Amino acid sequence: MNAATETDRALVNRVAKGDRAAVRLLFMRHHARIYRFVARQTGSEMTADDIANEVFLELWKQAPAFEGRSEVSTWLLGIARFKALSMLRKKKEDWIDDDDAAQVPDGADTPEVVTMKEDKAAALRRFVDALAEEHRTVIDLAYYHGQSVTEIGEVLGIPVATVKTRMFYARKKLGEALKAAGYDRGWP
């Protein structure tokens, strides 16, 4: 079996035996997805890069304990989510103060931006960003990372029924936001 067709699970087994090449292959396959996921969770590309790299250090450490109850990509996203949440909890004390916030220019309110007509995909992305964290996360994992309801439950550590409920309410809120903005729900 060559490296291109070797399964992620087989690569994790190789990592568990100390194979550094297997870590590199898993990194090449999954780094971009993990980076994008963490960037969306944290809002910081620099943090996303750091955490994505930490995920693969954790892979190296935890590979012997991987039981294969979920897909490797789901397992890695779960590690990434835990690390992102931990980092966000630590940073809560470092929020920007009001004086500094007043100095940050608000590019979204320029006359050019207000008068420009945005396409539906950009509007939808804005509405997703405005959702509560629990709803935004399930939408992000489902639609931007291609995770199934079961995989989302594993990543978030919640029951499938809870994922479905959050998905229902997130879709409802997105539909309402699109309608209020003058977009119909379907794609053109």
Question: What brief labels describe this structure?
Answer:
single chain; 188 residues; mainly alpha; globular
What does this structure look like?
Helix 3 (45-62) crosses helix 4 (72-91), helix 7 (120-130) crosses helix 10 (160-180) and helix 9 packs across helix 10. It is globular and about 55 Å long. It is mostly helical and 188 residues long. Mean pLDDT is 82; it is low at 109-117. It has ten helices and no strands.
Topology:
Layout lengths: L7 H9 L3 H23 L2 H18 L9 H20 L6 H6 L7 H5 L4 H11 L2 H12 L4 H8 L3 H21 L8
Protein name: Sigma-70 family RNA polymerase sigma factor
Family: Belongs to the sigma-70 factor family. ECF subfamily.
Keywords: Sigma factor, Transcription, Transcription regulation
Summarize this entry quickly.
The protein is an all-alpha fold and 188 residues long. It has helices spanning 8-16, 20-42, 45-62, 72-91, 98-103, 111-115, 120-130, 133-144, 149-156, 160-180.
What overall geometry do the principal axes of the alpha carbons give?
globular
Q: For the CA atoms, what is the radius of gyration?
A: 19 Å
The percentage of residues in β strands lies in under 5%
Unreliable spans:
109-117
Instruction: Assign the structural class, choosing from mainly alpha, mainly beta, alpha/beta, alpha+beta, or little secondary structure.
Output: mainly alpha
Total number of beta strands: 0
Distance between the termini: 44 Å
Helix content: over 70%
Q: Quaternary arrangement of the chains shown?
A: single chain
Helix count, per DSSP? 10
- Tell me, rounded to a whole number, the average pLDDT: 82
Q: Topology as H/E string?
A: HHHHHHHHHH
